[in-house]
Structures are given as C-alpha cells and as structure tokens.
Design brief:
It is a single chain. The protein is of the alpha/beta class and 345 residues long. It has three domains: 1-25 and 33-78, no CATH class; 106-210; 215-340, no CATH class. Helices cover 41% and strands 15% of the residues. It has ten helices and twelve strands.
Length: 345
C-alpha cells in the first residue's frame, strides 16, 4: 500500500520540493520500503510543482504567502464570474415555432385577379367619392390600389331586413360578400353593371334598386331619351359619321351625356365622329356606350389651319367635370380626341 510522500504537517502547496525523493533539510527517517509511487500520485506531484513554479512563482523551498493566497482567490472569483456570464449570454430563448405559409389554390388566385380587375375598372370608370358597398377585404384592397378617396361602406354584416347598405351607389359583390349577405344581396342589387371572372369566384359590380322591374323601367327611359336626341343629331349637316354609328345614335345606344356634348360642339363647328364604345363589361342589360372618339380635328379656316381640340375640350369640362379625355394619334396619323363619361347608377 502506497504511503504519503509529503512532509508531515503544513499545506500541500507549502511543501518544498524534494529532489531525489528526499525532503530538503528534513532529517532522514527510517521507513520501510514501500515500492514505487502510484501513477496518480506522480501526476499530482507534477501538477503541484508546475503550479508552484509557473503560476505562483514560488521557490521550491518557500512557503505561499498570504498575498498570493488572496490573489489566487480573486483570480478564481473572476474566472467563475466570467464563466457564469458566458453561460447566461449563451442561453438564448428558443426560437418561435415556424409557420409554414399555405399555398393559395387556383380558385383563390383567380378571385384575387378578378378583384384587381374590378378595382382597376372602378378607379377608371366610377367618379371619386362615389359611395361603394363591399366586404372589408375588398374595401381595403381598393384603398391600397389608390382609390382611398372613395367612401367605402358595408364593412360588417348587413342589418336585419336591409338588402344593401343605405346610400350605396354600387355594390362590389365578391365571394366573401355573397357568403355574408346571402339572398339579401341579390334582392337589393339585382343588376350587374360590370362582371369579372366566372363561376362562384367571380366579382360583380352591382347596381342597387328597389326591384329589377323598377331598374329596367329607368333604363328604358334613358334609352328613349338618348334615341330622341340621337336622331336629331344624325340630321345635323355638321356631323360627319358612318352609317353604323348613325344607327347607334337612332337606337338610343349612346349615353345621353355624350350626345349633349356633341350637340354643343355642332353648334359652333363640324365634328367628325370615328366611333362610340366602352360598353360596360358583362352588364346584365344592354348598357349604353360611354365613350366617343373624334378625329379630323384640324381644318382650314380663312386660309389657316385651326385645331378644334381646344374648343372640344372646353365643352367637355364645362358640361361634365368627371368626364375623362385623352388625346391620341389616329390610325391615319392625325390627332384624335377620346371622351369618356363615368359609370352612373
């Protein structure tokens, strides 16, 4: 059994080195031969000597003083504090669970495309400030699409017994609104002025009315008034127009607001109408044409070239502040003026 080779008494670090296995200045003591020391004791002795010589800088025969013990304690405390700080800094909170986005279906993507098309049509065809009824999602989409100046209503469920929100000039019927309103929507807004898409995912722009019969009666009155004025204009010698367009005038197919503008233009100069157009897409009734294209705007008067574009623009803006105008180049190379009036309920 191996015995302790340290000198009797004193600290483990205070024990001076014993070259050759003998303690310095210590009288030899007769001990029985105990054989070679164990590997563990050899390693321990080596570490002790290294610590004394390299770290404490203490001679082999000297004792470790009080100041060095205090320095060791401070160093150990600093190392322990640094270890705790590093451990706390490395302990980061677990990341939140990852949410995987659900890929939209083909039907949902088509509905989004139809809603965008409806929003663009409304921005171009409906006067700013017109009260619109729509579900919250579509109303928010209109606002983000640059039509935030519109008065959007109908953000909640329809009141009991109410077919559509009171005061709405148009109702944007999306799948979400049809699911919310049910049969009330069809009863309060029976006619479609514009439709985008098909099937259950389509988006319709509806016109509120007390009943379908009442609405159609109003439409018939408008057509009759347009036909009366159109036939009178067709007989005006200052109007230059083709046979097909002359028929549209006589049948009441042109919006009366355009006819009033044309009447004022003809009172001062000749007008060359190239066409009427822009029927509402997908309307559930024979909607009137709301655009007019005028060409041959430059004429000889008193030996000089005169453009009628400025005079025609003045007539348009004086009669209808919401009407839009566009000057373009005709297929033949000359200038042309495109006039469009807004959709009305």
């Amino acid at each position: 059994m191996s015995g302790d080779i340290s000198p009797p008494g004193g600290s483990w670090l205070d024990a001076p080195a014993r070259p050759g296995g003998q303690a310095g200045r210590t009288p030899a003591v007769s001990r029985p031969d105990r054989g070679e020391p164990s590997l563990a004791r050899v390693v321990g002795t080596t570490l002790r000597l290294w610590w004394r010589r390299r770290v404490l800088r203490v001679a082999d025969g000297a004792r470790v003083g009080t100041a060095r013990w205090a320095a060791i304690a401070v160093a150990l405390a600093v190392v322990a504090a640094a270890s705790v700080t590093a451990a706390l800094a490395g302990a980061r909170p677990a990341p939140p669970p990852r949410h995987v986005a659900v890929k939209p279906t083909a039907v949902q993507l088509q509905t989004l495309a139809d809603e965008r098309a409806a929003g663009l049509w409304i921005a171009a065809q409906v006067p700013a400030g017109t009260p619109l009824a729509c579900d919250p999602g579509m109303c928010g989409y209109l606002a983000s699409d640059g039509v935030s100046g519109y008065l959007v209503i109908g953000s909640g469920r329809l009141a009991a017994g109410a077919a559509v929100p009171s005061g709405a000039a148009f109702v944007i019927s999306t799948p979400a609104l049809r699911k919310q309103a049910g049969s009330q929507l069809a009863a309060g807004a029976p006619e479609v002025i514009a439709a985008f898409g098909a099937g259950q995912g389509r988006v319709d722009v509806l016109v509120p009315a007390a009943s379908r019969a009442t609405f159609l009666q109003t439409v018939q009155s408008q057509v009759a008034a347009s036909a009366l004025l159109g036939r009178a204009l067709a007989r005006n010698r200052r109007l230059h127009i083709g046979l097909a367009l002359r028929h549209e005038l006589g049948a009441g197919q042109v919006d009366q607001r355009l006819l009033v503008m044309l009447e004022h233009m003809l009172a001062t100069h000749s007008v060359y109408v190239a066409g009427f157009g822009d029927a509402d897409p997908g309307a559930s009734w024979p909607a009137q044409l709301r655009s007019m294209t005028i060409n041959d705007l430059i004429h000889h008067q008193h030996g000089r070239l005169v453009s009628q574009a400025t005079a025609d623009l003045g007539v348009v803006h004086a009669l209808d502040g919401d009407a839009s105008t566009q000057q373009a180049t005709a297929p033949g190379g000359g200038p042309e003026l495109i006039i469009q009036v807004m959709a009305s309920s």
